């Protein structure tokens, strides 16, 4: 059984920062490939960032490169998304996800497990 629970929802002004957390419960207790996605009203869910917890470089959507950072704490079974220099267009529901297979794509179909989502609102 794999469960993902996000936390860190909030509202900030443009230019501000926010950190999201995703606690993973799994047997075995391993994070494998973790990703963050987001979805705003009227849009499809899009990949924001992903990381292979076994090694390799993280990957980011062009819209967040240089502003967002994905990281993991294996001891706490937790993945983070640090969001800096936030823009109003970053407003969305953010979802944590895990893949048991490939870890070279941000495609939604590559991820098998999903959290419930947490709301991020950025005002201008």
Which structural traits does this protein have?
mainly beta, 0% helix, globular
Helices and strands, with pairings:
Blueprint: E1 3-7, E2 10-13, E3 18-25, E4 33-39, E5 46-52, E6 59-60, E7 68-73, E8 78-83, E9 92-99, E10 113-114, E11 118-123
Parallel strand pairs: 2-11
Antiparallel strand pairs: 1-3, 3-8, 4-5, 4-9, 5-6, 7-8, 9-10, 9-11
Strand runs, count: 11
Number of helices: 0
Order of SSEs, N→C?
Answer: EEEEEEEEEEE
Report strand %: over 45%
Q: Separation of termini?
A: 41 Å
Radius of gyration: 13 Å
* Average pLDDT, all residues: 92
- Give the uncertain stretches in residue-range form: none
**Roughly what percent helix?**
under 10%
What about the largest sheet?
Answer: 7 strands, mixed
Helix/strand-derived category reads mainly beta
What spatial form do the alpha-carbon principal axes imply?
globular
């Amino acid at each position: 059984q794999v469960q993902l629970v996000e936390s860190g929802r909030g509202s900030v002004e443009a230019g501000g920062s926010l950190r999201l957390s995703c606690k993973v419960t799994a047997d075995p207790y391993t994070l494998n490939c973790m990703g963050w996605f987001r979805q705003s009203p009227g849009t499809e869910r899009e990949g924001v960032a992903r990381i292979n917890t076994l090694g390799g470089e993280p990957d980011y959507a062009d819209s967040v490169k240089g502003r967002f950072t994905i990281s993991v704490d294996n001891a706490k079974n937790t993945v983070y998304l640090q969001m800096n220099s936030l823009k109003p267009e970053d407003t969305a529901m953010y979802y944590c996800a895990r893949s048991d297979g490939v870890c070279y794509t941000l495609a939604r179909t590559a991820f098998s497990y999903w959290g419930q989502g947490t709301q991020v609102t950025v005002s201008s």
